[in-house]
UniProtKB/TrEMBL annotation:
This is Lipoprotein. GO terms for biological process: Gram-negative-bacterium-type cell outer membrane assembly. It comes from Anditalea andensis. Coiled coil: none annotated. GO terms for cellular component: outer membrane.
Length: 179
């Protein structure tokens, strides 16, 4: 091998060694988890302390949170004592008018033209591998619907699913994506 070929070979080999020494953690879900350190998560049952909503709402939220983390991480779900631990409760479930429609008939009362279903979930998150990332925070989201065309009973399940999906994405971002 000539000295020019040796220099060219070294110029190609050195960047390969440098790049292989760098550890780049990337995931399509945006997590910053080191799976060599953090391997499991656990979710305690979330209870509905809001005083409203369907009877199974706490269980629905708990199962949705578990499924989301199983789908978007490589963490193993265990019953208790995970490296990442989630617990909390649904603290608000309310249906409030957002816009009023004035009746053309003076004998009829004004009606709500738009209603808003709001849900808040208080989450206590503990990261046993990095205590600084632990948090205790409330996450909230809402969805509007038109009470003139549909009743809350007809859309409640769908609205709750959309709200939970958004809240869970926010929880995921705040706990393992570190955004």
């Amino acid at each position: 091998m000539t000295s020019v070929n040796k220099k060219a070979f070294l110029c190609l080999l050195i960047p390969i060694f440098l790049l292989s020494a760098c550890r780049i953690e990337y995931s399509f879900t945006g997590t910053t988890l080191d799976y060599n350190v953090t391997q499991s998560f656990s979710v305690e049952n979330f209870f509905n302390d809001s005083g409203g909503g369907p009877a199974n709402m706490g269980q629905l939220f708990t199962e949705s949170l578990k499924e989301y983390f199983q789908r978007n991480t490589q963490l193993e779900l265990i019953r208790t004592g995970g490296d990442l631990q989630f617990e909390g409760s649904i603290t608000r479930y309310s249906i409030d008018p957002q816009a009023t429609v004035t009746s053309q008939d003076p004998n009829l009362p004004d009606r709500a033209g738009q209603m808003r279903l709001s849900i808040s979930v208080q989450v206590d998150f503990v990261n046993l591998q990095n205590e600084e990332e632990s948090l205790n925070r409330t996450f909230a989201f809402y969805q509007d619907y038109d009470p003139r065309t549909t009743s809350v009973l007809a859309v409640e399940t769908e609205l709750i699913e959309v709200i939970f999906e958004n809240i869970i994405q926010d929880i995921f971002t705040a706990t393992v994506a570190n955004w």
